[in-house]
Each structure stands twice: as structure tokens, then as C-alpha cells.
Amino acid sequence: MSTFPLTEIDRKIITELSTDGRLPYKTLAERVGIATSTCHSRVQALEKRGVIRGYRAEIDPLAAGQLVSALILIGVHPMQRSLVPVIAEELRAIPGVQQVFLIGGDKDLIVHVSTESVHSLRKLIAEHIASKETLTQTQTQIAFEHLTGVAPL
Which tens digit of pLDDT belongs to each residue from 68-78? Predict the structure, then answer.
């Protein structure tokens, strides 16, 4: 993927859209201080270059009844490290998985999950993670709060 320098206007557009991806171009243009047509062109350029990857509904797991949030650190068997991207894709498909991170260090992956209860978390780990022969160990951390960044760039 090629990169290109972002202008201050591009950064403002990204910040506004990361807060509300459904903003009309007119409102977005007013907020960042440019003409609507210019705003439309800038957003299209950001989409074309892959800076803006898409728009989606952001679901609040707590409001949807997913009361327990956890980070699961996972190690992959040394002889299976080439499979980390494949394992990550398999983990993404597990119901309740919010995010999967490929990391460096003594663990290979971090999986952010949301479940209905501690019992469901334990069941998710037992059925979908601990049962995988390619994985060596897990360490689970319960998250008390999850805050996202205000300014993405």
C-alpha cells in the first residue's frame, strides 16, 4: 500500500468522520472550513487511497448485553508461527471477537472479546481457543473500561 502525506484538512476530515461516519458532506465541509465540493473530492481521494477503509455501524457491546470484555493474550507454537495470519483470521470469525492484534514479544496475538458473562467467556476460551493445537498458552485480562482515541491521527 502506498502512502501519501495528509494535509491538516485531511486530518480534520478523518477526525470528524471517525466520530460520525454518516455526516452529510455539507455539514462535514462546514466543520472543517472548506467548500462542500472540495470536501466531497477530499473524502473520495481518502477513500481511493485506502486511508478511509469503509463505514460501518459501531456496536456498543455493553448495550447489546455483552457485559464482560476481555483481552486474551495468545502464544502460538514456535513451529507454527508461519500460521499466525491464518490463526488470526480464524479467531476473527468467533462470535464475540471484537478485534485481533498480531503482536511482537512473548505472545503472538491479542484477542479482544465481549461476552454475556464470565461463564460465557470461559466457554469461548475453552471451545474456540484452548482447544486449538497450534496455540501454546493464553492469558486472559478482564477489561473494566474500553476507551477509544479521540483523534485517530
Answer: 999 999 999 99
